[in-house]
Amino acid sequence: MNTNADLLKELRIDRSAGPPPSRKGLWIALAAVALVAVLALAGWWLFAREGAVPVQTATAVSLASGNAAASVLDASGYVVARRMATVSAKITGRVREVLIEEGMKVEEGQVMARLDPIDADAQRSLSAAQLSAARSQASSVSARLKEAEANAERLSRLVGQQLVSKAQYDQAVSQRDALRAELLTAQRNAKVAEDGLHIADLGVDNTIVRAPFAGVVIAKAAQPGEIVSPLSAGGGFTRTGIGTIVDMDSLEVEVDVGESYIGRVQPKMPVEATLNSYPDWKIPAEVIAIIPTADRGKATVKVRVALKEKDARIVPDMGVTVSFLERAPEADAEPRRGVRVPASAIVQRDGGDAVFVVGSGDEVELRGVQAGGALGGDREVVSGLAPGETVVVDPPEGLEAGAVVSTGTN
Question: Which residues form the Multidrug resistance protein MdtA-like barrel-sandwich hybrid domain (predicted)?
Answer without folding.
Answer: 83-229
